[in-house]
Sequence to fold (649 residues):
Amino acid sequence: MKQLNQLYETTPYRLLAKTITRHIPGVEEKLVEYLVAEIPRRYGGDYGIPIMRLLRGVQDREEKINAIINDLKQSPVIRDAVYTRGYLNIDINEAELAKTLFNTVKAVGEEFGPPKTAKPERIVVEHTSANPTHPLHIGHARNMCLGDTLARMLRKRGHIVQTRFYINDMGRQVAVLVYGYMKASTKPPENTKPDHWLGLVYAITHTLIDLQEAKKKLKQARTHEEYQEAVNEIDKLMAALAKLRSKDPQLFDKLAEAIQQDPDPEKTISRIMQEYEYRLNPDTVKAFREVVELCLQGFRETMKRVDALPEEWDWESDLAWTSMVEKVIKEALRTPYITYKEGALALDLQKLLRDKPYLYEKLGIPRNLEIPPLVLRRSDGTTLYPTRDIAYTIKKFQAFNADKVINVIAAEQRLEQIQVRLALAAIGREKEAANTIHYAYEMVTIPGRSMSGRRGEYITLDEVIEAAIARARQEVDKRYPELTEEERQAIAEGVGIGAVRYSLVSVSATKPLTFNIDEAVNFERNTAPYIQYTYARAYNILRKHNAPIPWEEIDYTAAGERQDRRTLLLLAANYPYIYAKAADELKPEILVAYINKLADKFNKWYPTDHVIREQDPGKKAFKLALVYTIKTILENTLRTLGIPALKRL
RNA sequence: GGGCCCGUAGCUCAGCCAGGAUAGAGCGCCGGCCUCCUAAGCCGGUGGUCCGGGGUUCAAAUCCCCGCGGGCCCGCCA
Fold:
């Protein structure tokens, strides 16, 4: 796609970067690109850059500036370049830019987007990876949408990408659920989504066990304070249990009775964990797999619905059962960093950093972060989550022959992720360590609600989606009473799910996100429906035109006739650059901000500059080409965000 | 106690990494616009001690230091 590259190099960012770095040695192209900004209206011109900043300490500034200006003017898309008050400003020749843009769009059609990267990589994106003990909730949804969108962006940029889901089936949490499942000795009811039902089993079981523990503490209380604390705890648990019972009294009572008869549930749970890790008891293994598989059924249904289904599913237990985890431990034993923490095998990562301080830089580890030793194996010989995670990281590299692994994982796991990378470096896998990226995102909170999986308190993604669709459905019913039930529902689904996805990737991952369902389904500007709506408008102009775009008839002087038309054109031409930047920097929010602005400019232009009614064939051809370009950008961006592009809404 | 992240309009957020022109959007609120390609739209108005205090600089929302507020992490949990 030569044309995409050419258009990319014609954007103001690249033009200024290339030209300026030619004249000022030692200045990086990227730095110049970052500095390019749109000029505030009142100053005139299109793009500018604070050039004086780059000329610090340079001799003959005036000469340099003049040379740069002369050079810039050689480009046909630059009409003028001037120096004012510390800034170098350029004015775009919109007709020439339009030629480059339309020639590109004409040539590449639906493929319009970023140019393919010069350095394609094989990249694994691991995302969602929720514990299979309850349904996916809104926090997992942020993970899922980020991961899925990153994968789509990277693919479009020319990388070879695979998505993976890590099935965390060896944790204590799953054992608690399996314990409860065996005690309940029933299957999920037909009319319930299995993950929802299992979430309830898990919450009831967990809370009942916590109650037993709290009662033990009460008996053992020595001081008044201990006694009071235990009483308070029991009160809270009783309240939680009452709520849980109301959801399914029959199931609750059955579990309560069965668990009461177990003198030591904790011990039983530890036992079944061992039975699973070492495959000691076929019935236990079967129960684990059955429960997890049921939960995954629910996950898949939800993920498919939001169009974010991962390609590969990796069982944590498979890692333990094959020799992969053992191999990691063996490799660790051969290093000088092995240590024992109260008898348990561990890695002294602080020592590693003392030996190889360059790892701070190489792995991006904060200098004054204290890294506790990483325990690899419990005293009883069983492995721990980080140990298996080390093996899993290696597996991700090997299974896909990957250059890079991106883990979309909550920011609260930052230390664990650093430990895993350091452990990889410790066992001689520095390359993998350096190419493992923790894509950290902050928590999602819902105003006025606290979330707790083990108490069964969470807002499921399924509920959120349903609410969004229901809200969209009201609107669709109002607008399109003539459509069939199926048609209206299909539109509502696309709008509702799109709204949820959009709201979850539009905020930078480092920010805690307050998810306000009313706002997510408030379908106005700066939402997915706004973009979808804009797409439908553009699409319908072309549908009405009902003929190929008359590329050969375009009158390029039409580009500069109107300010709003010109603004829209300039913005559209930046698409390949912005998309590439968003993909390279792993920042979907950049793309979201762009597409929102583009939709904005389009909607401002749309009502005042009619396309179909345009009498002049050359001008009409220009407008049609512009609409086709915008339509394509909207379509491709929506696809990247996993949001359906609807032809009508 | 130590570390990481966040703090910008009533609310939700861009901008901070890569310092530069009078700090931008959306929601909300007030007022307008459908014989015309979709009004989930458009136009106008309203709204800011950029958490506080110092420092660096010709120039600080942006960099540095000291605080304040919120979240998270520092397990033989995952």
About this structure: The longest helix of chain A spans residues 194-220. Chain A has a mean pLDDT of 94. The radius of gyration of chain A is 29 Å. The CA atoms of residues 376 and 387 of chain A lie 5 Å apart.
